[in-house]
What we know:
Blueprint: H1 2-31, E1 37-40, E2 50-51, E3 63-69, H2 77-91, E4 97-104, H3 108-118, E5 127-132, H4 134-142, E6 155-162, E7 168-170, H5 177-181, E8 192-193, H6 197-220, H7 226-238
Parallel strand pairs: 3-4, 4-5
Antiparallel strand pairs: 1-7, 2-5, 3-6, 6-7, 6-8
Helix pairs in contact: 2-6
Amino acid sequence: MKIVKVKRYIVLGILFFLPVAFLLMLYPAKHNYIPLNIVNEKVSDIDGFHSDRDGELLLKDHITVLGFLGKSPLDHMIAASNLKELVYDKFKGFKNFQIVIVVPEGTEKEIEALKKEINTYEDLKYWHYAFATEGEIKMLYSSLKSKVNLSDDLSVSNVFIVDKDLNQRGRIDGRNEREIEENKPKFSVYSYDAIQVAEIKNMMSDDVRILFTEYRQKRTGKFEGSNTRRTKEINKSNE
């Protein structure tokens, strides 16, 4: 009987301390949270484009993953599938989240075929296609900061994160913790290659999550920009 009671107390103790230990593990990550950098401002909106859905399609007031599939969208099936499985499925339903794929006018039939390939089990209500002229697409792309040029067929495998205020988000220093420890050269991240599964699954997915965290903290009044946090740390070190 005593053995049963001892086992019961052990189980209760584990159940009590596990959540506490989990919260203690989360605390350093929360404390070291760094907002996603604004790498470019004043991204052009798409109010002049027409959409595959009813109603006006805009980037403003949305957290947008923006892509360009060009004149032959079906040739970029892998990039579209990676976005659907690794980004859309993870963040669908989050407030104001959307994926916008820009394509030239005249590709409507190919887009319908593409939908049949990737919309296998559901209607992707937060995934939109925006149709525009060649000039409009080039103008939109020129408003983005990128290390990769738009190809002649108006496509690029890289996708971009645009916030609610039409700021392009990314990383001024894209190194991970290990690369920083090894003193690897700094590099900036302006976009994410949708062909590279690891880049989309790890880096981009994490960056979208960080951006949602920022907006959630802003709503609750708990958000501190990097400049505010840095000032507090300097003041604390001078005490």
